[in-house]
Amino acid sequence: MSENYQNEYKTRLKRLLAIKKAGASPYPSKFDKQDLVIAIKESADGQPIKTAGRILTLRLMGKLCFAHLQDFSGKAQIAIKSDEVGAESFKFFIEHFDLGDFIGCAGEVFTTHKGEKTLLVKKFELLAKTLLPLPEKWHGLKDEEERLRKRYLDMIANPEVKEIFIKKAKYYQAMREFLQGQGFMEVETPALENTTGGADARPFVTHHNALDLDVYLRISVGELWQKRLMVGGFEKTFEIGRIFRNEGMDAEHLQDYTSMEFYWAYADWNDSMRLTEDLVKYVAQETFGSLKFKIKDFEIDLGKKWQRYDYRQEILKCTKIDLEKTDVKTIKKKLQALKVAYEDFNNLERGIDNLWKYCRKNIAGPGFVVYLPKIISPLAKESKEKPGYTERYQLILAGSELCNGFSELNDPLDQEERFRAQAELRLAGDEEAQMEDDDFVEALKHGMPPTTGLGISERLFAFLMDKPMRECQIFPLMRPKSINREQLTGSKGKN
């Protein structure tokens, strides 16, 4: 920590103590804010304004001080004059206020000789004294890790960062509006589970003290729970919630993120694909005001006809490997020839998945990859037209799959058999294989109507923003980094 930073902290701390000694409150409970800061720029001269925000700039000119104030709406200029607020108040402001402090003020709008709308302050009040300075002109916070760790500073200096999360709020609002408009009901399902289900992923494990048992944080948005609701008589449900996967991190993947899943009784995957296309278009238009996007190196137009890509045929075309005539050894050899980095595997399921991840990267979309193999789709209904493949689809955009949907398997005996096959994979060391869920199979034995479902996560939002997922999380998980108190204060403290 720099010496200038330490000195700044000490100076501000002295000012804080002086404010308290003077009998003023540096941290009042409330301020009657009646106007946004941006109203200063939008009002006519003479208009009374009462607003509050953070001081971004200070410019002293004798008995006049100009400052820029910022709140959620934007920033505007204020002017504090000695003969307007009184000599003592003006002196108090000059001696005790710093960049970054929060101030409440009331006054009237006027236009400066340079044509800038400004609030002439009649009264002001300190609302929060800052002890640490903001990065000067953003020179002090260029490192990406530091920006994400101190996202609050990132937002102060870069309004476009706040815009990401304004759009993200619209994204989920639009998703809710669309689904509710289609007759779906929002539900909540457990985040802690005895067995995880609904995806191939390594879960987080924690301990439930009251029940004295280990439980898992969910890896899907209640897939097996929402299908239980179909058994119970519900016909259209959805949930937007957090899921947790204890896996690697990269630009497209995080361990803790938000996803949406819907389930629709008496409908199949074709109905689901049509609804998914309409959903994505609606959400994109409502959130971004457009259906055209630049994502990575692809020009994407969601408004054009969506294509269908056959999973087996795409892999055959891309790698010359036929999924019906291959084995683990052959796939590993091909991956090595293609110079694809992969975690070692000993089963065909992971091999096929690695092949597909290589093949998909050149598919621009928009469209759906269809007929995924039964061997990698333990919850999807087998296709009558293509035995060994399923009525399963994934949205493809800019070389990645961004949703997963299918006609849900509702044959309890078939489901039981597939769970057992997944259990064998887990016993063989595949930590991403799905767990057996006897309770869910029992529910299916009571009868679940034909059902289709979809899962779509915030990766879609990140793709439409054309940003890494961490940039699109308001506070992404970071390694802890504590402030060194000795460096900050310059003292060693007590032993």
Question: Overview of this structure, please?
Answer:
This protein is an alpha+beta fold and 495 residues long. It folds into two domains: 3-134, Beta Barrel (OB fold (Dihydrolipoamide Acetyltransferase, E2P)); 157-306 and 365-472, Bira Bifunctional Protein, Domain 2 (BirA Bifunctional Protein, domain 2, 2-Layer Sandwich), CATH 3.30.930. Helix content is 34%, strand content 24%. The protein has 16 helices and 19 strands. It has helices at residues 3-21, 39-42, 82-85, 87-96, 144-149, 151-157, 159-181, 223-231, 269-288, 311-319, 328-337, 348-359, 412-427, 438-445, 459-465, 485-489; strands spanning 48-61, 64-71, 74-81, 102-111, 117-128, 185-186, 192-193, 205-208, 213-217, 236-244, 256-265, 292-295, 298-301, 307-310, 367-370, 392-397, 400-401, 404-407, 451-457. The strands form four sheets. Strands 6, 10, 11, 14, 15, 16, 17, 18 and 19 form a nine-stranded mixed beta sheet that branches. A five-stranded mixed barrel has the order 1-2-3-5-4. The protein has a three-stranded antiparallel beta sheet with strand order 7-9-8, with no helix packed on it. The chain is elongated, with a radius of gyration of 29 Å. The two termini are 22 Å apart.
